[in-house]
Amino acid sequence: MHFAGQHILSVNQFERADIETIFAVADQMLPYARRKRVTRVLEGAVLGNMFFEPSTRTRVSFGSAFNLLGGEVRETTGFEDSAIAKGESLYDTARVISGYSDVIAMRHPEPGSVAEFASASRVPVLNGGDGANEHPTQALLDLYTIKSEMHGRGGDIDGLRIALIGDLRYGRTVHSLCKLLCLFQGLEVHLISPPELRMPGDIVETMRSADHKVTETEDLEDHIAHVDIAYSTRIQEERFGSREEADLYRGRFRLNQNIYTQHCEPNTVIMHPLPRDSREGARELDDDLNDNPNLAIFRQTDNGVVVRMALFALVLDVVEQVDRDARDVNWYTGSRFQ
Ligand code: CP
Question: Which of 32, 153, 262, 325 is the most buried (most CB within 10 A)?
Fold first, then answer.
């Protein structure tokens, strides 16, 4: 794929070589994201960061990634602060904002809405999540994390054993991740969910067509016993008709230190796209795992910055210029990155 000027809307647009390109550029971004080096390669460029659904990490890491490349960020959050609340169409909004920006990141509650917006945009649009459909940049950072964690343990993505746990029906991160995993070979995938919240059948079929061994089950303990990655997800309350309906499933599959010690292999990596639901009655990923060195959730969030920096550098075609005129940082940076 030729990245310059392209929208990033779905993981379906990638081939395996594209993933390798993105990850190589993400590696190149590490000294900048880890506050060792400074680059101003996107000085003068503007990111339009448009989030019409709540977000902490996707919105802020898109903005941070752009700032770390030297660019400026202009942000819209929520429909109520946008002219969409006055009836403006996605088409008109896209025509307007793409005149103010060099690239746009967008989250919207309707499946397909970001693609509709992109079709009217005059600049590249990156999908930050469209309803229960896709979250391609999250899938890329998840896969980058899986690769990094597996390499640290002498493994790889090919041949991976992974359990995906929780709300697999509405969880857009696992939809995108499963599609990406089809670019790799010989995976064993355990889909652990209530029957009503199973992974959409077309995605399961796509994984089986890729010759992955896929099991759908409600049995958490047996199916986290022999996996490299246990990937937990939150019940996506915002996609249910009511809070009471979501309550039927909340807390059904909990992973805590005791369950981990009893049932997982000692090196199993624990992942979650976050936010995890820390309220009493939910806790799908318990706080008592916070000191477990195999808990990779904050390595995932850190990786979100390098992967999004890589995507900006690729679609704005500055990869070759990033290291030019770069310098060391001149402020105290501490030791927050491992
Ligand atoms: N993982 C993720 O999309 O988190 P936010 O909703 O905070 O962006």
Answer: 32
Question: Are residues 98 and 122 in contact, defined by beta-carbon separation less than 8 angstroms?
Answer: yes
Which residue's alpha carbon is at the smallest distance from atom 6 of ligand 1? Answer: 55
Considering 7, 59, 108, 135, which one is annotated as catalytic? 135
What are 200-224's pLDDT values in tens digits? 999 999 999 999 999 999 999 999 9
Whole-structure pTM value: 0.97
Tell me the angle at which helices 297-315 and 136-152 cross, rounded to the nearest 10 degrees.
120
pLDDT(338) > 80 = no
Query: What are the structural domains, with CATH classification, of the chain?
Result: 11-135+303-328 (3.40.50.1370), 136-298 (3.40.50.1370)
**Contact assessment for residue 281 and residue 251, using Cβ atoms and an 8 Å cutoff:** yes
Ligand 1 atom nearest 135 alpha carbon:
3
318-331 tens-digit pLDDT: 999 999 989 999 99
Ligand 1 binding pocket (C-beta < 6 A) is: 55-59, 129, 138, 273-275
